[in-house]
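thread: overnight batch results

M.L. [08:02]
morning all. the overnight job finished for the chain we discussed friday. pasting input first so we're all looking at the same thing
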Amino acid sequence: MNNREIQAAWKYHDGTKHSYWSVRNHPHFLDWANRPLPFKIYPKIEPLPLPRDVPQTGVAALSAISEPVASSRADSIPGVQDLTRLLYFSAGITKQRAYPGGEIYFRAAACTGALYEIELYVLTGDLPDLDAGVYHFNPADVSLRLLRKGNFRENLAQATAMELAVAHAPATIICTGTYWRNAWKYQARTYRHFGWDNGTLLANMLAISAASGLPAEIVLGFVDAEVNRLLDIDTRREVSLCLVPIGRTSESSLPAPREAPALGLETIPLSKHEVEYPAMLEMHDASSLESVEEVNQWRGKPPVLPSSALAGEAVRLPRLPEEEQPKDTIEQVILRRGSTRTFDKAASITLTQLSTILDYATRGLPADFLEPPGAQLNDLYVIVHSVQGLKPGAYFFGREHNTLEILKEGEFRAEAHHLGLEQELPADACVDIFFLADLKHILERYGNRGYRAVQLEAGAIGGKTYLAAYAQHLGATGLTFFDDDVTKFFSPHAKDKSAIFLLAIGKPLKRKRQ
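M.L. [08:03]
and the structure it wrote out:
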């Protein structure tokens, strides 16, 4: 199916909406005996251990998430320590917890259901202490497995229609999504979660890259089949989602492309049996780019329109003075971060804390689908419950002017409880941030691939929101929602927009030990 036949994206989006009745009429029970493995394992490939004692950058978290490294003509070559830092603080295991059925390995970035369906691969030229090749990263033992030996950078560059960031990158990290690992719990809605979970991981990756002094960019413009072939993945189970070129080399030419035959590498099955959800495969196929010509067509698009103009009374948000900014490093914040399970309903946060989160999380993503730089597909709507100096109510965040436009005043904890799939977390939080987007405009502009872009961007901004909150010793958690009810709540301002993501922020409830 052609990327421009956008009825495919609408069919998937509408077909995976949550409503009060849909979650009751289609209950899903988890088969714990068939829970998928949390790691992709190549049993016949020897691991290449990565160093465990990599020094931290020492860069403050807020600086790391808001100040990307500008690309220059100077060479910026990552070494093995740089790659290890990037991979570990994006997808590494940071906590381990036992439960009656086994253990959960919590990772560096937030993920729906702690199922961690995003896999990372690295395609490199010859780097200091690492030979050129295509590698898979295994967080279980912090190692790389060599899938293909040799320099395949020209192959990857050609798949992106010679995107400069990829062509000049000494190394590129490729993110993939594994359907079943997330669909075991979330069924067909998993394709939305690909964007959210890849995005939160990318927020960490971009921050660590910036802290390491390495330019990085999110690239969505590539021929899907060519990248999947390089990774030798079974596309009924796993698919490439995005590329992240790391660093820069000033070399004027790349080595010739190499043959990339099928390898048929053995991997351990994730479960005894897997359930396939055709809606996800259809959505991915419909949003895939099939040729270099289609990549060029996709990339040649008009600039992103600015968000909704202010129409009502607005509160100008205070900016945090530089001398008062938290000094915790990006690594410290990532290691401390975890999705908050219970908020203290009696607590409140300050207006400056909320302003800092909104400001630093939305200063722009380096991405090939966002033009001009700093553009954004998602609009942020906010329900304020308990923020010092701000009346409870519903607001629209005006990014261009750093303001909150008042949509309606009132106590909306009961409404937040309902909108957040009748969970306590959004009702007990101090503030709820809803991501809404004009899907009609986005799909007309980008085709079906715009659906990938808008979901991924929401996850990445959400990931930055996590980091900005935890940098200030607050808590945060991502949530799902009743789609159309969210739009209705924020209308008429949000009329014709679609709900994309939800993040609740507050102070974690500290339970007394018995």
